[in-house]
Amino acid sequence: MAKRITLFTIGFTKKSAEQFFTKLQAAGVSRVLDVRLNNRSQLAGFAKKDDLAFFLRSIAGIDYAHIPDLAPTQDMLGEYQKSSNGWAAYEVKFLDLIRSRRIEETVRPELLDGGCLLCSEDRPHHCHRRLVAEYLCEKWGDLEIKHLT
């Protein structure tokens, strides 16, 4: 990679719409990259896929893209939610998944530069968006990760 890429991450839960959009604008995010498997649920409130794309564009002039290859499978997510194996087991399985998908070859660095990986988890610690960002940093090298919390 020729230039350093800045990649943000954010979760929408425990944030009001005002807090969410203000954080994105203040950080200078140019594009929200939705890495959720389920992004059409009524439970997502202002972050429901079609509504979010409209709000981002209208409120903040921010582009929106959904990248399902950066999301877990339904089976993997269901197992994590129902299992007592915990985060460590999920992390191993998710990293195996994105490794097998070869996301470092299928996702263009230009798409991520100034972009923000979006998921539902409030904090990045136990969220796959952090795993995606760290994996790509390991593969690409010059990538700066900024978690918006």
Shape category: globular
Radius of gyration: 15 Å
Q: Secondary-structure element order, as H and E?
A: EHEHEHHHHEHE
Strand content: 15-25%
Largest sheet: 5 strands, parallel
N- and C-termini, Cα separation: 28 Å
Helix content: 40-55%
Number of domains: 1
CATH fold annotation: Protein-Tyrosine Phosphatase, Chain A
CATH class: Alpha Beta
CATH structural architecture: Alpha-Beta Complex
User: How confident is the prediction overall: mean pLDDT?
Assistant: 93
Strands, count:
5
Residue windows where pLDDT falls under 50 for at least 5 positions: none
Strand order of the largest sheet: 3-2-4-1-5
How many helices? The count is 7
Helices and strands: which structural class? alpha/beta
InterPro entries: DUF488 (IPR007438)
Organism: Fimbriiglobus ruber
Protein name: DUF488 domain-containing protein
Pfam families: DUF488 (PF04343)
List the helices and strands and how they pair.
Elements: E1 5-11, H1 17-27, E2 31-34, H2 49-60, E3 63-66, H3 74-82, H4 86-101, H5 103-106, H6 109-112, E4 115-119, H7 128-140, E5 143-148
Parallel strand pairs: 1-4, 1-5, 2-3, 2-4
Helix pairs in contact: 3-4, 4-7
